[in-house]
Amino acid sequence: MSSQTKIALVTGGSRGLGKDMAISIARKGMDVMLTYRTNETEAKQTVKAIEDVGQKAVALKLDMSDFNSLDGFVQQLIESLQSNFHVATFDFLVNNAGMGATVPFMQVTEELFTDFLNVHYKGIYFLTQKLVPYINTGGRIINISSGTTRFANPGYSLYASMKGAIETFTKYLAKELGAKGIGANVVAPGPIETDFNNGAIRNNTQLKDMLSSLSPLGRVGEADDIGSVVAFLCTDDAKWINGQRIEVSGGING
User: For residue 57, is pLDDT > 70?
Assistant: First the structure.
């Protein structure tokens, strides 16, 4: 079966950008494993949406802020691959799970720093390390970053610093995993209208209007602006794209 249907793992795939990534990947004819942190109901709705386009899907619980839970998650993933898909390996790892907070530099606490470190960098670094043995030759790792690594946005010093680390990490993944035939790229969204960071952009008309005015295309991004690009990177059409940071921002702050 593994030669017929490829499988993607999308962390944080129950809602927002991750949900659209998961459904977009399914539309390309791939099966999807997605993770959720707390909202099992939304995760099941996303599974249903994937099944509605004719692909298989499962949802697994994963809390990236709990570093010690990673080994248990990997074991659960292996068991799920065998029981649900009858394979031992998968093809695409999309490290999307994240947390948002707009906090001025002077107000960042050590506790918040540790949470962001685990969720956005340490957790991704070691989860990827633990999963690489289960990624097929020809597979891909797609790490989600942010436009805020390229243009500074006050309140994002913590978030953007961790994403900057992920971008450097991705270059090394591409270099060191190339011998195994695994590629790695970064997708960096610009401002997006989702419920991320408590719907910071969606719920603030003034902020949304300001960001829209900065964009050559006159609007902020939507989830399906990003999911389709991630799905493309999981196809053979993108096989020669490797070690790249692809900003998907409509040209904002160009």
Answer: yes
Q: State the number of CA atoms in the 13 A half-sphere of 238 facing the CB.
A: 24
Going from the C-alpha of 97 to that of each of 16, 116, 120, 142, 216, the distances in angstroms are 10, 11, 8, 12, 29
101-159 pLDDT, tens digit per residue, is: 899 999 999 999 999 999 999 999 999 999 999 999 999 999 999 999 999 989 999 99
Query: d(Cα 102, Cα 48) in Å, to the nearest integer?
Result: 33
Q: What is d(CA 153, CA 157) in angstroms, rounded to the nearest whole number? A: 8
What are the catalytic residues?
159
Integer Cα distance of 13 and 20 in angstroms: 8
pLDDT of residue 196: 55
Residue 75 CA to chain centroid, in angstroms? 21
How far are the Cα atoms of 16, 17, 55, 153, 200 from residue 103, in angstroms, in the given order? 21, 22, 40, 11, 12
Strand partners, 35: 60
How far, in Å, CA of 118 to CA of 99, rounded? Answer: 10
Evaluate whether 64 touches 123 at the Cβ level (below 8 Å).
yes
Question: Are residues 123 and 70 in contact, defined by beta-carbon separation less than 8 angstroms?
Answer: yes
Two structure tokens written together for 56: 């298989």
Spatial distance between the Cα atoms of 239 and 212, rounded to a whole number of angstroms? 33
pTM, two decimals, is 0.93
Rounded to an integer, the average pLDDT of 74-84 is 98
**What is the CATH topology of the domain spanning 7-248?**
Rossmann fold (3.40.50)
